[in-house]
Amino acid sequence: MAVFMYCRDLSARLKVFMRITFIVVLFFCPDSAVQADAVGDFYKGKSIQLVVGYGPGGGYDVYARTIARYLGKYIPGSPSVVVVNMPGAGSLRATNFLYTTAPKDGLTIGAFARDMPLMGVLGGNPNVQFDPRKFTWLGSASSSVNDVYLMFVRKDAQVKSIAEALTPGGPAVVLAGTAEGASGNDVAVLLRDTIGLNVKIIAGYPDSGAIFLAVDRKEVDGRLVGLSAVSSAKPDWLKPDGQVKVLLQFGRSERNSRFPEAPTARELAKDDRALALIGLAELPYQLSRPVAAPPGVPPERARALQEAFMAMQSDPDYLKEAERLGLDVSPVDGAQALGLIERLAASPKELLDYMRNLHGDK
Question: Which of 87-101, 120-134, 168-182 has the lowest mean pLDDT?
């Protein structure tokens, strides 16, 4: 009888202990499933706005619309994702909106130019109203691992080789660009200063589609642009019998195997300082198609967006559609994106001053 009473007492004590332990675990270690349910309840039946800093038809827009078709599938609650175009100032308008005005509830994300993080780090420009280190970074849909940045010209242009483009006193390569902060404009000036490129920039085109049209109409010789943008918008142009020729590669240290005859900018650097400037300017190109949410998104929703963004990169249907559209898939996650921006901010002052003056010239 004593043994029975002892066992029953021990059983009661164990039950009390287990209840206390359960309460403590709930209090100090919230169940991830409970958090997921809360995120799912929030997103269920809602729409996420994906704000793109360019007009329809360009590379950023094509990426955004492809992402929009698959991202919601991996977010708890399966919200729809709607693309909203907000062109202006090389995507500066959309980037400022995302940072200063967009709701911080996890229902707005943005896609903007790869140069925007650098502009934010440099500071000193009153038009730049954001700190890229404070965005809620989802990551980048592609990187310079595959999505190399190219300078191409029409095959019937006056300048037909990189040697001619570098000849002192020779004819200038006429390239089209958009607005302040646009990578095509800045890289062209950087190449002028670091490798001696003879270049004339015709700026002010509203978006990538307009620039492709300008090249097609022979208003300009060519442009600087990411490989994925050409592959999606003008897939026949880069074929052996296409109408353009790649003269230069930017954004990576080694030549892309698809264009073995086109040198990298690093190969053509005139001295160590030029090489260092090119290396700094190429850092943002590891974020070829950046995607972020505003600062201050609730942590559990931020985590859901970040995890969904990376999970989508392995979706078979997404990969199939990306291949069909000529889109590169070499993703960078949110933590890596933030790490690259921190590296930018930690660059030597002399190099940052050059980049600051480059942006200030415009």
Answer: 168-182
For 330, the domain range is 38-144+287-360
Note whether 8 and 117 are same-domain residues. no
278 and 340 together in one domain = no
- Looking at this protein, which amino acid is placed at residue 69? R
Domain boundary among 251, 283, 315: 283
Q: Do the bridges between strand 47-52 and strand 80-85 make them parallel or antiparallel, or are there none, so unpaired?
A: parallel
Sheet strand arrangement including 173-176: 199-202, 173-176, 222-226, 149-154, 244-250
| CB 176 within 8 Å of CB 198 | no
Residues 140 and 240 in one domain: no
One domain for residues 171 and 223: yes
Give, in order, the Cα–Cα distances in Å from 280 to each of 286, 346, 348, 349, 354: 11, 10, 9, 11, 10
Are 118 and 286 a contacting pair, CB within 8 Å?
Answer: no
In which order are the strands placed within the sheet that holds 136-140?
A: 80-85, 47-52, 108-111, 290-293, 136-140, 332-333
Phi-psi category of 127—alpha, beta or left, where left has phi over 0 and alpha has psi -120 to 50? alpha
Letter string b/e over residues 178-193, b meaning 16 or more CB atoms within 10 A of that residue's CB: bbbbbbbbbbbbbbee
Given the structure tokens 């229902």, which residue do they identify? 107
Residue 175 is which amino acid? L
63-116 pLDDT, tens digit per residue, is: 999 999 999 999 999 999 999 999 988 899 999 999 999 999 999 999 999 989
Other C-beta atoms closer than 10 Å to the C-beta of 353 total 13
pLDDT digits (tens, 9 = 90+) for 8-43: 554 555 444 445 544 444 455 455 555 668 999 999
Give 54's DSSP letter: S
- For the chain, helix (H) and strand (E) counts, in that order, are 14, 11
Shared domain for 296 and 347, answered yes or no, is yes
User: What's the burial of 6, exposed, middle or buried (CB within 10 Å: 0-12/13-18/19+)?
Assistant: exposed
User: CB 142: neighbour CB atoms within 10 A?
Assistant: 26
